[in-house]
Write a structure and sequence with these properties.
Elements lengths: L2 E4 L2 E8 L3 E6 L13 H4 L3 E6 L18 H14 L5 E6 L1 H12 L4 E7 L9 H10 L7 H8 L5 H11 L5 H14 L17 E6 L7 H11 L4 E5 L5 H4 L1 H23 L1
Parallel strand pairs: 3-4, 3-5, 5-6, 6-7, 7-8
Antiparallel strand pairs: 1-2, 2-4
Length: 271
């Protein structure tokens, strides 16, 4: 995998296909290989760039690992775009990856041609229970990455089995556990909340939520996101947190026409 030197160290990424860039942003925990089941199809019409967030996959762990936050990932995304001199691109973001992609579209809509948010963070109406869970996951009593992933991945496929294996090994080292906990502590902070800012979002957006997802609820978070982004298309799929890995064919059935529509709309505007 190629890499680029950013403020957190080397950030590795997959680069496959040709055409308008399509950037894939994974969840916490996870890495670029989480999208393995859909990348070949997506790369037929786009240049697919799938990042390993700092501390995941092959990317360097930020120092100290406890410094990791949602806003750090957002900054890294901007650095990545600048380092590669990317033109306006499509973005598919899962969970914290969806948060970073949505924030980019809110702050710099000229950089985003279209947005697919898969169970995105930032639309949770926090209460004592959600805040308590974030505190638990940010503490030494946290559920392990493997256990937590086994709870939110509701369909077993070759891709999800590999995700679980990585969660039990690569993502289970002490410094990566520390990073994972730091990310959880940041999820309940005010800067993670996108509900107010997203009301002014103008980017074409597709919202995909899993009906069986215990982490980011389609009935609660999904409805909030749909209300906050009135122009967004919304779909609830019969899966957990990662529809691209759990139901790749259905995911592509929803996403590919959306990306094509966005591309056609951009062409009309440019004319």
């Amino acid at each position: 995998m190629p890499s680029v030197e950013l403020s957190t160290g080397a950030v590795h990424y997959l680069d496959q296909g040709e055409g308008a860039p399509l950037v894939l942003l994974h969840a916490n925990p996870g890495d670029s290989r989480d999208f393995a089941a859909v990348i070949p199809s997506l790369a037929k019409n786009n240049r697919v760039l799938a990042l390993d967030w700092p501390g995941y996959g092959s990317s360097d762990v930020p120092r100290p690992p406890e410094s990791a936050t949602v806003m750090l990932f957002h900054r890294v995304l901007r650095e990545f775009i600048a380092a590669l001199s990317l033109p306006p691109a499509f973005y598919i973001g899962n969970s914290v990856g969806g948060n970073a992609a949505a924030r980019l579209a809110i702050e710099s809509p000229q950089l985003v041609r279209g947005l697919v948010l898969v169970a995105p963070g930032g639309f949770t109406q926090h209460n004592w229970m959600t805040r308590a869970f974030c505190r638990l996951q940010g503490s030494r009593f946290s559920l392990s990455p493997h256990l937590f992933a086994s709870l939110y991945l509701k369909r077993r496929t070759p891709t999800t089995e590999e995700m679980l294996q990585r969660a039990a090994t690569l993502q289970a080292t002490p410094e990566r556990i520390a990073l994972n906990r730091a990310m959880w502590r940041s999820f309940a902070r005010p800067e993670n909340d996108l509900r107010r800012e997203s009301r002014n979002m103008t980017t074409a957006t597709l919202l995909l939520f899993g009906e069986l997802d215990p982490a980011v609820s389609a009935k609660r978070d999904g409805k909030v996101a749909a209300r906050c982004i009135p122009s967004a298309r919304f779909a609830a799929l019969p899966c957990g947190h990662a529809s691209f890995a759990e139901l790749p064919d259905l995911f592509l059935e929803k996403v590919q026409p959306f990306l094509a529509d966005c591309g056609n709309a951009c062409c009309l505007v440019s004319q």
